[in-house]
Specification:
Order of helices and strands: HHEHHEHEHEEHEEEHHHEEHEEH
Enzyme class: transferase
Radius of gyration: 21 Å
Shape: globular
Distance between the termini: 52 Å
CATH superfamily of the largest domain: Type I PLP-dependent aspartate aminotransferase-like (Major domain)
Largest sheet: 7 strands, mixed
Strand content: 5-15%
EC number: 2.6.1.-
Number of domains: 2
Pfam families: Aminotran_1_2 (PF00155)
Structural class: alpha/beta
Family: Belongs to the class-I pyridoxal-phosphate-dependent aminotransferase family.
Strand order of the largest sheet: 2-8-7-6-5-3-4
Keywords: Aminotransferase, Pyridoxal phosphate, Transferase
Length: 390
Protein backbone atom coordinates (compact mmCIF):
# COMPACT_ATOMS: atom_id res chain seq x y z
CA UNK A 1 0.00 0.00 0.00
CA UNK A 2 1.21 3.52 -0.76
CA UNK A 3 0.54 6.75 1.08
CA UNK A 4 -0.70 9.88 -0.63
CA UNK A 5 1.83 11.95 -2.52
CA UNK A 6 0.83 14.99 -0.45
CA UNK A 7 1.72 13.40 2.89
CA UNK A 8 4.79 11.65 1.48
CA UNK A 9 6.34 14.84 0.10
CA UNK A 10 5.71 17.39 2.83
CA UNK A 11 9.43 18.09 3.11
CA UNK A 12 9.97 18.08 -0.65
CA UNK A 13 11.89 14.80 -0.59
CA UNK A 14 14.53 16.41 1.62
CA UNK A 15 15.26 17.07 5.30
CA UNK A 16 12.74 18.89 7.44
CA UNK A 17 15.60 21.10 8.65
CA UNK A 18 15.69 19.79 12.21
CA UNK A 19 18.44 17.16 11.96
CA UNK A 20 20.79 18.87 14.41
CA UNK A 21 17.99 19.45 16.92
CA UNK A 22 17.14 15.74 16.87
CA UNK A 23 20.82 14.83 17.29
CA UNK A 24 21.14 17.15 20.28
CA UNK A 25 18.06 15.60 21.87
CA UNK A 26 19.50 12.10 21.36
CA UNK A 27 22.67 13.22 23.13
CA UNK A 28 20.65 14.60 26.04
CA UNK A 29 18.67 11.36 26.26
CA UNK A 30 21.99 9.47 26.44
CA UNK A 31 23.09 11.57 29.41
CA UNK A 32 25.38 14.02 27.58
CA UNK A 33 25.12 17.57 28.98
CA UNK A 34 24.15 19.81 26.06
CA UNK A 35 23.38 23.54 26.13
CA UNK A 36 20.33 23.68 23.88
CA UNK A 37 19.97 26.96 22.01
CA UNK A 38 17.80 25.48 19.29
CA UNK A 39 14.04 25.97 19.57
CA UNK A 40 11.94 28.90 20.71
CA UNK A 41 10.88 27.44 24.05
CA UNK A 42 10.89 29.80 27.04
CA UNK A 43 13.08 28.85 29.98
CA UNK A 44 10.26 30.05 32.24
CA UNK A 45 6.99 28.14 32.46
CA UNK A 46 3.44 29.40 32.06
CA UNK A 47 2.60 31.90 34.81
CA UNK A 48 1.00 30.17 37.83
CA UNK A 49 -1.92 32.63 37.75
CA UNK A 50 -2.75 31.51 34.20
CA UNK A 51 -2.57 27.88 35.28
CA UNK A 52 -4.85 28.65 38.21
CA UNK A 53 -7.37 30.21 35.82
CA UNK A 54 -7.16 27.11 33.65
CA UNK A 55 -7.70 24.89 36.68
CA UNK A 56 -10.72 26.92 37.85
CA UNK A 57 -12.27 26.72 34.39
CA UNK A 58 -11.72 22.98 34.12
CA UNK A 59 -12.99 22.23 37.63
CA UNK A 60 -15.87 24.57 36.99
CA UNK A 61 -17.03 22.31 34.20
CA UNK A 62 -15.72 23.92 31.00
CA UNK A 63 -14.41 20.55 29.78
CA UNK A 64 -16.97 19.66 27.14
CA UNK A 65 -17.11 20.72 23.52
CA UNK A 66 -16.43 24.41 23.17
CA UNK A 67 -17.92 26.52 20.41
CA UNK A 68 -15.95 25.77 17.23
CA UNK A 69 -15.20 29.43 16.38
CA UNK A 70 -13.96 29.96 19.93
CA UNK A 71 -15.62 31.24 23.07
CA UNK A 72 -17.30 34.60 22.78
CA UNK A 73 -15.19 35.97 25.62
CA UNK A 74 -11.85 35.08 24.06
CA UNK A 75 -12.84 36.23 20.57
CA UNK A 76 -14.06 39.55 21.97
CA UNK A 77 -10.88 39.99 24.01
CA UNK A 78 -8.62 39.33 21.02
CA UNK A 79 -10.71 41.61 18.81
CA UNK A 80 -10.47 44.42 21.36
CA UNK A 81 -6.71 43.88 21.69
CA UNK A 82 -6.23 44.11 17.92
CA UNK A 83 -8.45 47.18 17.63
CA UNK A 84 -6.56 48.97 20.40
CA UNK A 85 -3.09 48.09 19.09
CA UNK A 86 -3.65 48.59 15.36
CA UNK A 87 -6.55 51.01 15.04
CA UNK A 88 -8.34 48.61 12.67
CA UNK A 89 -11.90 47.99 13.85
CA UNK A 90 -12.16 44.29 14.70
CA UNK A 91 -15.01 42.24 16.18
CA UNK A 92 -15.44 38.62 17.14
CA UNK A 93 -16.68 37.97 13.60
CA UNK A 94 -13.14 38.70 12.41
CA UNK A 95 -11.61 36.10 14.74
CA UNK A 96 -11.28 32.30 14.68
CA UNK A 97 -9.59 30.55 17.62
CA UNK A 98 -7.20 27.76 16.53
CA UNK A 99 -5.07 25.08 18.24
CA UNK A 100 -1.94 27.22 18.09
CA UNK A 101 -0.30 29.36 15.44
CA UNK A 102 0.76 26.37 13.33
CA UNK A 103 -2.84 25.27 12.91
CA UNK A 104 -3.73 28.86 12.01
CA UNK A 105 -1.09 28.89 9.26
CA UNK A 106 -2.40 25.61 7.85
CA UNK A 107 -6.02 26.78 7.93
CA UNK A 108 -5.27 30.22 6.49
CA UNK A 109 -3.56 28.71 3.45
CA UNK A 110 -6.45 26.30 2.98
CA UNK A 111 -8.72 29.35 2.86
CA UNK A 112 -6.82 31.12 0.08
CA UNK A 113 -5.06 28.45 -2.00
CA UNK A 114 -6.50 25.84 -4.32
CA UNK A 115 -4.60 22.75 -5.46
CA UNK A 116 -1.66 23.84 -7.61
CA UNK A 117 -1.73 27.54 -6.66
CA UNK A 118 1.66 29.11 -6.00
CA UNK A 119 2.09 30.19 -2.38
CA UNK A 120 4.95 32.61 -1.73
CA UNK A 121 7.03 33.00 1.42
CA UNK A 122 10.26 34.78 2.35
CA UNK A 123 13.58 32.97 2.72
CA UNK A 124 14.92 32.62 5.42
CA UNK A 125 11.74 31.16 6.85
CA UNK A 126 10.40 29.26 9.82
CA UNK A 127 11.12 25.62 9.08
CA UNK A 128 7.49 24.45 8.81
CA UNK A 129 6.44 26.97 6.15
CA UNK A 130 7.15 25.00 2.93
CA UNK A 131 5.67 21.78 4.34
CA UNK A 132 2.55 23.63 5.47
CA UNK A 133 2.05 24.96 1.95
CA UNK A 134 2.55 21.53 0.41
CA UNK A 135 0.10 20.07 2.93
CA UNK A 136 -2.73 22.20 1.52
CA UNK A 137 -1.81 21.29 -2.06
CA UNK A 138 -0.13 24.59 -2.89
CA UNK A 139 3.22 24.94 -4.65
CA UNK A 140 5.71 26.72 -2.35
CA UNK A 141 7.96 29.37 -3.91
CA UNK A 142 10.54 31.33 -1.94
CA UNK A 143 11.30 35.02 -2.26
CA UNK A 144 14.98 34.99 -1.34
CA UNK A 145 16.15 37.93 0.78
CA UNK A 146 19.77 38.87 1.50
CA UNK A 147 21.96 39.50 4.54
CA UNK A 148 22.99 42.82 2.99
CA UNK A 149 19.43 44.13 3.37
CA UNK A 150 19.00 42.65 6.84
CA UNK A 151 16.86 39.85 5.37
CA UNK A 152 14.09 42.36 4.69
CA UNK A 153 12.38 41.78 1.31
CA UNK A 154 12.90 44.75 -0.98
CA UNK A 155 10.66 46.00 -3.77
CA UNK A 156 13.10 44.39 -6.21
CA UNK A 157 12.86 41.05 -4.37
CA UNK A 158 9.08 41.28 -4.58
CA UNK A 159 9.11 42.31 -8.23
CA UNK A 160 9.29 38.84 -9.77
CA UNK A 161 5.99 37.18 -8.93
CA UNK A 162 5.51 33.81 -10.66
CA UNK A 163 2.40 33.03 -12.64
CA UNK A 164 -0.30 31.37 -10.57
CA UNK A 165 0.72 33.05 -7.32
CA UNK A 166 -2.16 33.34 -4.92
CA UNK A 167 -0.70 34.26 -1.54
CA UNK A 168 2.31 35.72 0.23
CA UNK A 169 3.37 34.68 3.75
CA UNK A 170 5.48 37.03 5.86
CA UNK A 171 6.68 36.88 9.46
CA UNK A 172 7.58 39.95 11.51
CA UNK A 173 9.16 40.08 14.04
CA UNK A 174 10.96 37.35 12.18
CA UNK A 175 11.94 33.83 13.05
CA UNK A 176 14.76 32.95 12.38
CA UNK A 177 16.48 36.28 11.80
CA UNK A 178 15.18 38.46 14.64
CA UNK A 179 14.47 41.20 12.09
CA UNK A 180 11.49 43.55 12.50
CA UNK A 181 10.17 44.62 9.10
CA UNK A 182 10.27 48.37 8.57
CA UNK A 183 7.32 50.42 7.40
CA UNK A 184 9.04 50.79 4.03
CA UNK A 185 9.34 47.00 3.74
CA UNK A 186 5.71 46.46 4.67
CA UNK A 187 4.55 49.12 2.23
CA UNK A 188 6.45 47.28 -0.52
CA UNK A 189 4.80 44.02 0.59
CA UNK A 190 1.38 45.66 0.52
CA UNK A 191 1.97 47.15 -2.93
CA UNK A 192 3.04 43.73 -4.21
CA UNK A 193 -0.14 42.14 -2.86
CA UNK A 194 -2.39 44.84 -4.32
CA UNK A 195 -0.63 44.86 -7.71
CA UNK A 196 -0.70 41.07 -8.09
CA UNK A 197 -4.03 40.42 -6.33
CA UNK A 198 -2.42 38.30 -3.62
CA UNK A 199 -3.72 37.32 -0.22
CA UNK A 200 -1.28 38.30 2.52
CA UNK A 201 -0.83 35.92 5.44
CA UNK A 202 0.97 37.80 8.20
CA UNK A 203 2.52 35.68 10.96
CA UNK A 204 2.73 38.03 13.95
CA UNK A 205 3.23 35.62 16.83
CA UNK A 206 6.27 37.58 18.09
CA UNK A 207 4.50 40.96 18.14
CA UNK A 208 5.17 41.46 21.88
CA UNK A 209 8.92 40.92 21.44
CA UNK A 210 10.21 44.08 19.76
CA UNK A 211 13.53 45.55 20.95
CA UNK A 212 14.18 48.21 18.30
CA UNK A 213 11.63 50.09 16.23
CA UNK A 214 7.96 49.17 16.36
CA UNK A 215 5.76 46.36 15.16
CA UNK A 216 3.43 47.35 12.33
CA UNK A 217 0.68 44.98 11.27
CA UNK A 218 0.25 45.20 7.48
CA UNK A 219 -3.49 44.81 7.97
CA UNK A 220 -3.41 48.52 8.87
CA UNK A 221 -2.09 49.65 5.47
CA UNK A 222 -4.39 51.01 2.74
CA UNK A 223 -6.38 48.34 0.94
CA UNK A 224 -4.97 45.50 3.03
CA UNK A 225 -7.64 44.69 5.65
CA UNK A 226 -9.75 42.92 3.04
CA UNK A 227 -6.87 40.78 1.77
CA UNK A 228 -4.91 40.00 4.95
CA UNK A 229 -5.15 37.09 7.37
CA UNK A 230 -3.17 37.71 10.57
CA UNK A 231 -1.81 34.79 12.61
CA UNK A 232 -1.60 35.27 16.38
CA UNK A 233 -0.76 32.99 19.27
CA UNK A 234 -0.45 32.82 23.04
CA UNK A 235 2.69 30.69 22.77
CA UNK A 236 5.39 33.37 22.62
CA UNK A 237 3.63 36.31 24.24
CA UNK A 238 2.50 34.41 27.36
CA UNK A 239 4.80 31.35 27.50
CA UNK A 240 1.84 29.09 26.72
CA UNK A 241 3.52 26.95 24.06
CA UNK A 242 2.00 23.68 25.25
CA UNK A 243 -1.51 25.06 25.64
CA UNK A 244 -1.93 25.29 21.86
CA UNK A 245 -4.11 28.34 21.45
CA UNK A 246 -3.83 30.80 18.58
CA UNK A 247 -6.07 32.72 16.20
CA UNK A 248 -6.68 34.04 12.73
CA UNK A 249 -7.88 37.62 12.26
CA UNK A 250 -9.33 38.52 8.87
CA UNK A 251 -12.35 39.52 6.80
CA UNK A 252 -15.69 38.24 8.09
CA UNK A 253 -16.41 36.22 4.94
CA UNK A 254 -13.07 34.41 5.18
CA UNK A 255 -13.49 33.72 8.89
CA UNK A 256 -16.97 32.29 8.27
CA UNK A 257 -15.50 29.79 5.80
CA UNK A 258 -12.61 29.03 8.13
CA UNK A 259 -15.11 28.19 10.87
CA UNK A 260 -16.59 25.61 8.48
CA UNK A 261 -13.09 24.17 7.95
CA UNK A 262 -12.53 23.97 11.72
CA UNK A 263 -15.83 22.12 12.08
CA UNK A 264 -14.44 19.43 9.77
CA UNK A 265 -10.91 19.31 11.24
CA UNK A 266 -10.02 20.47 14.75
CA UNK A 267 -13.56 21.00 16.08
CA UNK A 268 -12.30 23.80 18.24
CA UNK A 269 -10.02 24.36 21.24
CA UNK A 270 -10.81 23.13 24.79
CA UNK A 271 -12.91 25.67 26.64
CA UNK A 272 -10.84 25.71 29.84
CA UNK A 273 -7.72 26.54 27.81
CA UNK A 274 -9.55 29.38 26.09
CA UNK A 275 -10.68 30.70 29.46
CA UNK A 276 -7.07 30.70 30.63
CA UNK A 277 -6.01 32.55 27.46
CA UNK A 278 -8.73 35.14 28.03
CA UNK A 279 -7.53 35.60 31.61
CA UNK A 280 -3.93 35.99 30.39
CA UNK A 281 -4.80 38.60 27.79
CA UNK A 282 -6.85 40.55 30.31
CA UNK A 283 -3.84 40.61 32.65
CA UNK A 284 -2.52 43.32 30.32
CA UNK A 285 0.86 44.38 28.96
CA UNK A 286 2.67 43.93 32.29
CA UNK A 287 2.50 40.14 31.99
CA UNK A 288 3.57 40.23 28.36
CA UNK A 289 6.49 42.48 29.25
CA UNK A 290 7.54 40.10 32.02
CA UNK A 291 7.56 37.16 29.60
CA UNK A 292 9.52 39.14 26.99
CA UNK A 293 12.06 40.75 29.35
CA UNK A 294 14.62 37.91 29.47
CA UNK A 295 15.06 37.97 25.69
CA UNK A 296 15.62 41.71 25.57
CA UNK A 297 18.13 41.38 28.41
CA UNK A 298 19.99 38.53 26.69
CA UNK A 299 19.93 40.37 23.38
CA UNK A 300 21.71 43.31 25.01
CA UNK A 301 24.16 40.96 26.74
CA UNK A 302 24.92 39.27 23.42
CA UNK A 303 25.53 42.53 21.58
CA UNK A 304 28.16 43.51 24.18
CA UNK A 305 29.95 40.18 23.75
CA UNK A 306 29.76 40.36 19.96
CA UNK A 307 31.18 43.90 19.97
CA UNK A 308 34.39 42.59 21.51
CA UNK A 309 35.40 40.48 18.48
CA UNK A 310 35.39 40.68 14.68
CA UNK A 311 34.77 37.12 13.47
CA UNK A 312 31.05 36.59 14.12
CA UNK A 313 28.62 39.29 13.03
CA UNK A 314 24.99 39.53 14.11
CA UNK A 315 22.08 40.31 11.87
CA UNK A 316 20.54 43.30 13.72
CA UNK A 317 18.43 41.55 16.38
CA UNK A 318 15.44 43.86 16.61
CA UNK A 319 12.86 41.40 17.92
CA UNK A 320 11.89 37.81 18.79
CA UNK A 321 13.96 35.41 20.90
CA UNK A 322 16.75 34.62 18.45
CA UNK A 323 20.12 35.80 17.21
CA UNK A 324 21.12 35.14 13.61
CA UNK A 325 24.92 35.08 13.50
CA UNK A 326 27.05 35.33 10.37
CA UNK A 327 29.90 32.82 10.74
CA UNK A 328 31.16 32.93 7.13
CA UNK A 329 34.56 34.21 8.30
CA UNK A 330 35.21 30.69 9.59
CA UNK A 331 35.00 29.27 6.07
CA UNK A 332 32.34 26.83 7.28
CA UNK A 333 28.73 26.49 6.28
CA UNK A 334 26.14 26.98 8.98
CA UNK A 335 25.54 23.24 8.99
CA UNK A 336 29.22 22.34 9.36
CA UNK A 337 29.74 24.98 12.06
CA UNK A 338 26.72 23.84 14.09
CA UNK A 339 27.64 20.16 13.75
CA UNK A 340 31.21 20.82 14.93
CA UNK A 341 30.08 23.09 17.78
CA UNK A 342 27.77 20.35 19.05
CA UNK A 343 30.40 17.64 18.68
CA UNK A 344 33.30 19.58 20.20
CA UNK A 345 31.61 21.89 22.74
CA UNK A 346 28.21 20.32 23.45
CA UNK A 347 26.39 23.48 22.38
CA UNK A 348 23.42 23.09 20.04
CA UNK A 349 22.43 25.92 17.68
CA UNK A 350 20.44 25.73 14.47
CA UNK A 351 22.21 25.98 11.10
CA UNK A 352 21.02 28.88 8.96
CA UNK A 353 20.49 26.38 6.16
CA UNK A 354 17.67 24.85 8.23
CA UNK A 355 15.68 27.95 7.31
CA UNK A 356 16.40 28.10 3.58
CA UNK A 357 19.22 29.24 1.32
CA UNK A 358 19.39 32.93 2.22
CA UNK A 359 20.94 32.30 5.66
CA UNK A 360 23.64 29.89 4.48
CA UNK A 361 26.80 30.59 6.44
CA UNK A 362 24.79 31.66 9.49
CA UNK A 363 23.54 29.97 12.64
CA UNK A 364 20.47 30.76 14.69
CA UNK A 365 20.90 31.00 18.45
CA UNK A 366 17.80 30.81 20.65
CA UNK A 367 18.18 32.98 23.75
CA UNK A 368 16.32 30.46 25.87
CA UNK A 369 18.58 29.55 28.79
CA UNK A 370 19.34 31.61 31.90
CA UNK A 371 21.58 34.64 31.53
CA UNK A 372 24.79 33.18 32.97
CA UNK A 373 24.58 29.96 30.98
CA UNK A 374 23.68 31.91 27.86
CA UNK A 375 26.67 34.23 28.27
CA UNK A 376 29.04 31.30 28.86
CA UNK A 377 27.70 29.42 25.83
CA UNK A 378 27.95 32.48 23.58
CA UNK A 379 31.52 33.17 24.71
CA UNK A 380 32.39 29.55 23.90
CA UNK A 381 30.77 29.88 20.47
CA UNK A 382 32.80 33.02 19.75
CA UNK A 383 36.05 31.36 20.85
CA UNK A 384 35.19 28.34 18.72
CA UNK A 385 34.59 30.59 15.71
CA UNK A 386 37.85 32.49 16.25
CA UNK A 387 39.83 29.25 16.31
CA UNK A 388 38.40 28.37 12.90
CA UNK A 389 38.51 31.80 11.25
CA UNK A 390 40.45 32.09 8.03
Amino acid sequence: MTLSRRISHLTGDGSDGWDLFYRARRMVAAGVPVVELTIGEHDIRTDPEILSAMDRAARGGHTGYAMVPGTGGLRDTIAARITERTGVATTRDNILITPGGQSALFSAHHAVCDEGDVALYCDPYYATYPGTLRAVGAVPRAIVTRPETGFQPTAADLGQIPQGARSLLINTPNNPSGVVYSKQTLEAVAACCRDHDLWLISDEVYDTQVWDGAHLSPRTLPGMAERTLVIGSMSKSHAMTGSRVGWIAGPEAAIARLIELATHTTYGVPGYIQDAAEFALNAGPALEDRVAAPFKRRRDLALKLLAGQDVVHPVPPSGAMYLMLDIRATGLSGTAFADALLTDRNIAVMPGESFGTAAAGHVRVAMTVDDDLFATALKTLLEFAKERSI
